[in-house]
Amino acid sequence: MVDFALPEEVVDLQKLAREFAISEIRPAEAELDAMRDPEAAFTSETYRSVVKKMHEIGLHKTTVPSESGGLGLSGVASYVIEEELAFGGTGLASRALIAPIGAAVIAGSGIAAKHPFYKDYVEAFVEDTEGKHSGCWAITEPGRGSDFLEIDGETTFSTTAVHNPANGTWKINGAKAAWVTNGWEADIILLMATARPDMGMEGTAVFLLPGDLPGISRGRPLDKLGMRALNQAEIFFDEVEVPEEFLLFDAGPAYPMLLEMIVTGGNTAVATLAVGAARAAYETALQYSKERVQGGKAIFEHQLIAMKLFDAFRDIEAARALIWKSAWLMESNRPDLRISFAARSMACNMAMRVTAEMVQVLGGYGISKEYPVEKFYRDVKLLQIMDGTLERISLTAAARL
Ligand SMILES: Cc1cc2nc3c(=O)[nH]c(=O)nc-3n(C[C@H](O)[C@H](O)[C@H](O)COP(=O)(O)OP(=O)(O)OC[C@H]3O[C@@H](n4cnc5c(N)ncnc54)[C@H](O)[C@@H]3O)c2cc1C
Question: What is the pTM of this model?
Answer without folding.
Answer: 0.98
